[in-house]
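Lab notebook, bench 4. We co-purified these components, and the gel suggests they stay together. Before we commit to crystallization screens, I want a quick structural picture of the whole thing.
Request: model the full complex, all chains together.
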Amino acid sequence: MIAETTNSELFKRVKASFMRQGMMQNLGAQLLRVEPGLCEVSLQHSDRVSQQQGGFHGGAMGALADIAGGYAALTAVPSDLEVTTVEYKINFLASFGSGELRAIGRVVKAGKRIIVTTAEVTHIDASGKQTACAVMQQTIVPVPKTY
Amino acid sequence: MIAETTNSELFKRVKASFMRQGMMQNLGAQLLRVEPGLCEVSLQHSDRVSQQQGGFHGGAMGALADIAGGYAALTAVPSDLEVTTVEYKINFLASFGSGELRAIGRVVKAGKRIIVTTAEVTHIDASGKQTACAVMQQTIVPVPKTY
Amino acid sequence: MIAETTNSELFKRVKASFMRQGMMQNLGAQLLRVEPGLCEVSLQHSDRVSQQQGGFHGGAMGALADIAGGYAALTAVPSDLEVTTVEYKINFLASFGSGELRAIGRVVKAGKRIIVTTAEVTHIDASGKQTACAVMQQTIVPVPKTY
Amino acid sequence: MIAETTNSELFKRVKASFMRQGMMQNLGAQLLRVEPGLCEVSLQHSDRVSQQQGGFHGGAMGALADIAGGYAALTAVPSDLEVTTVEYKINFLASFGSGELRAIGRVVKAGKRIIVTTAEVTHIDASGKQTACAVMQQTIVPVPKTY
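Here is the predicted assembly.
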């Protein structure tokens, strides 16, 4: 987490939207980093995000990747617009029953009508060991801001 | 919700796994129906599942579709096995700031190694009006049951 | 192949675009049916569309599904517009080393900016037996017609 | 194209499979590079691979990305096995009516049962200028070699 980016206008803009997401507050997700074309979020393991075998729920990994990609895309549109997810596709690579997930979303191409992003979800265990957990590919469109 | 299916062995088997999913309890999802090759789940709108504009979060629709497809697949594997999601792809069609979502997962093909499913997510408003909200396509594999 | 649909304005419109696709001529694909929100195409097995084990190439199934979905979408936009594929996702279910493929594309939702379609690819053998071969989910946008 | 890799055992193994693909010969695709976890292929523009507006057909880009990812995966399995594509998802970023496409497939994770890859398709014009054309995410499984 770099001071410049957490204090930047981009970070504030994304943070304002992020804090309005009831589901992200509910799951316990945190916004870590925002740069032009990039957004990083994190999620601690808890019963709130687990599946039947105790691991992070695929739905939680999907939601985390979705917002990492979506907020990366938001940095690429004018500030009077929001973005919405048209679709995403996610592959799950590994599952863990503790620790923390980090998702980094990146803009692949920011067209005027269509923005394409990818996200990588990585697990970090108590010792700091990192393991790739999921990769996502996503289509986003700019939409009018309604709040 | 049909009595025969809620009392069936298939329903009980899926319910046992479903109730172990911390995230589904957290979001408030409910298991409605289980038949061979089919599973239906529901989710009421609340702040726990909302995005920044107040609508159902894409991550919530994704998680709901994921488990509908996953549990449809579970009905197609021997009872000593569980299933896990390899990947899914979801298109969002509409968003609503109230009411209820229903997701119906269906097995398209149950191979020995790979199971392919689809899911449809439909919104139901207070008057009972139904609107298509999302469509998903998913790849599942059988895995050993670890609990 | 129904006379009404092959003679319809919709069929002629799609046929005009289809015949301009060098790749579809090259592969030997044929346009069978066009209705509002639906398009059916076929492809005979040949060395031109085979993979290393002799079966239909995944790329050929993908191309066939892509145009079935795309032309289904074309029926949902004004006649001065064309459509282009934003993305698609295809699952392969079976492969065959002879016979014919049929792909039926269907519009799931035709929004003003985004059209979502699905396609089913079915194999038909010499005896008429049908087997599901692939399912696709696709995102399409209307674009200006440039020819 | 690097001499070491074109002469390597890996290159020969992939080349042997590639040359058996009737569709790749038909489209005019070429195998450029094979390294552990990576494969690069190319495709010249021609009427054999065009769509109705004259650009590279999405089906051709899809087929090229599919084999780039698939052959990257092949380098990660024992030499008595082949691989087959379970599914892929491709986003199209740009289209061109001349020049050459290059697709580079990369293994993201090579599990024993499931291999996940990505591919990037890039256009190169007559002056050497490169433009991103498509990104793909893919699921592969090892299968017995039948030839």
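Residues 3-144 of chain D form a domain with the Thiol Ester Dehydrase; Chain A fold (CATH 3.10.129.10). Worth comparing against the SEC data before the next meeting. Residues 58-74 of chain D form the longest helix (17 residues).
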